[in-house]
Amino acid sequence: MKGPFRDRPYEGRGDDPLLPGMKLDQIGQALASCYDNLVAEGLPDHLAALVRRVDRAERAAHAKDRAPSSRVALVVEDEQETRDLAESVLEETDLRVVGCDNAEKALSYLQDHGGDVALVFADIRLAGAMDGMQLARAIATLWPCTRLVVTSGVDLDPGDDLPEGAVFIPKPWRAFDVLKEADRATRDPTPPVS
């Protein structure tokens, strides 16, 4: 925490749960720990996204000190709010996050940066000529080391076979499930063989 109160001890009221004399940096660390515990216990996704947005400015300031990641998480979702939520969740990883609102833009990005894309998180139903399943098949063929995660608010049709190694997460998805796949993409860039 920066500012004039950084090293000043906290002087709360007598009924205050914080310890008297606790520095604001320590309070911030305690709050961050509580937040981490809430996320691990299943904080609702919309609340988690709101907390992350509040925290974005501070993370951006700290990002200047870190080397930028060359690995990318590509979010392909035509609904702006859902795309923003997925991007917020994936910003918690070491991956750089890029969002696209249709499969054509995603393919264009992949043509230029395909070797950097570790994870593609795509909705099956997309606006445009190509849907998410067609996009997943193209990625599996052209960029086989990219981890594919497809999502939808409806069950997969019996004829819709996922490409080998792709994962389906039904909507509404949990942030934990998305983060788990992002972790797999960073640890093991090659999709599992079934």
UniProtKB/TrEMBL annotation:
<feature type="modified residue" description="4-aspartylphosphate">
    <location>
        <position position="123"/>
    </location>
</feature>
<dbReference type="InterPro" id="IPR050595">
    <property type="entry name" value="Bact_response_regulator"/>
</dbReference>
<dbReference type="InterPro" id="IPR011006">
    <property type="entry name" value="CheY-like_superfamily"/>
</dbReference>
<feature type="domain" description="Response regulatory">
    <location>
        <begin position="72"/>
        <end position="186"/>
    </location>
</feature>
<keyword id="KW-0597">Phosphoprotein</keyword>
<dbReference type="Pfam" id="PF00072">
    <property type="entry name" value="Response_reg"/>
</dbReference>
<dbReference type="InterPro" id="IPR001789">
    <property type="entry name" value="Sig_transdc_resp-reg_receiver"/>
</dbReference>
<protein>
    <recommendedName>
        <fullName>Response regulatory domain-containing protein</fullName>
    </recommendedName>
</protein>
